[in-house]
Amino acid sequence: MRFDDQRRLLVQDLHNLGIADAKVLGAFGKVPRELYVLPQYVEYAYRNQPLPIEMSQTISQPLMIAIMLQYLELGEDDLVLEIGTGSGYQSALIAEIAREVCTIERLEPLSLRAQGILKEQGYKNIHFRIGDGTQGWQKAFPPYKEFSKIIVSAAASEIPPRLKEQLASDGILVVPVGRGYMQILNRVVRQDGEYTVTEHGGCTFVPLVST
Ligand code: SAH
User: Fold this and answer.
1) Distance, CA 1 to ligand 1 centroid (Å)?
2) Average pLDDT, the chain
3) In a domain, 136, yes or no
4) Best mutation site among 49, 118, 206 for ligand 1 pocket (most ligand atoms within 8 Å of CB)
5) pTM of model > 0.90
6) Is the pLDDT score of 1 beyond 90?
7) What angle (nearest 5°) sits at the alpha carbon of residue 53, between those of residues 207 and 107?
8) Domain range holding 103?
9) Which strands sit side by side in the sheet containing 147-152, from one edge to the other?
10) What are the angstrom distances between the C-alpha of 122 and each of 11, 35, 115?
C-alpha cells in the first residue's frame, strides 16, 4: 500500500483510539513518518508502535505522541520546548501546529540527522540545541526564556525543576515520570505561580539522561 494511504489509515486508527483533537490528527496526516525511521524499518513506518533509531533510542509510538500532544492543547500561537529530538518526527508534528519549536537532544548524531531531514522538509520554525534538556533552553538561539508548552519525550525521575521554571504562566508541561520500565504521564499546569500536577496513565520511554 502507498505511504499516503497508510498515513490516512494511521490517522483513522488514532481517531478510533480516542484522539479527538483535529489539529493533532491533521498533523499526523501531513508528516511522512517513513522519512524519520531507519531505512530497514520503512515498511513498518505506519504501524502504531515505537521503532528503534540510532544509538539505542526509539522513535515514539504514534498513539503515545498523539496523547501527549492532545494533553498539550497545542495551538498556532504556541512556543513549544521539546526535550529529546530523537528522530525529529515529533518535532515536525508540533511544527505543523505551533508557531515555533525549540528542541534539545543530548546525542549529537541524532540531532544532526533530524536537523538534516527537518531542514530538507522546509521547516523554518524549528530551532535546535545539542545538550542536556533538563537544564531547559539556554545558551541557544533564539534566546527565549519561557515557553507556553513543554514536552519531554524521555522518562524523568522527577519533574525537571528548570523546565517548570521555563513554563510560562498558563502553560502546560507534559512529561513521563518514573524510574522503572513503566512511567506515569504527568501533566503540569502553571497558573498564578502555582503548579498543578495530574497523572494520566502508564507509558514507557527511554530514560532522560542528565549530564
Ligand atoms: N520524540 C522522539 C523521541 C526520541 S526518544 C521521536 O519520536 O523520535 C528520546 C530522546 O531523548 C532520545 O533521542 C534521547 O537521546 C533523548 N534524551 C535523553 N535524555 C536527554 C536529555 N537530558 N536532554 C536531551 N535529550 C535527551
Assistant:
1) 31
2) 97
3) yes
4) 206
5) yes
6) no
7) 55
8) 61-203
9) 126-130, 100-105, 79-83, 147-152, 167-177, 183-191, 194-203
10) 23, 13, 11
Number of domains in the chain: 1
Distance of CA 102 to the CA centre of its chain: 11
Residue 78 domain-assigned? yes
**CATH number of the domain enclosing 112:** 3.40.50.150
In a domain, 94, yes or no: yes
- Does the CB atom of residue 91 touch ligand 1 within 6 A? no
Ligand 1 centre from 89 Cα, in Å?
12
In this prediction, residue 211 carries a pLDDT of: 79
Q: How many angstroms separate the CA atoms of 148 and 127, rounded?
A: 16
pLDDT in tens, 26-73: 999 999 999 999 999 999 999 999 999 999 999 999 999 999 999 999
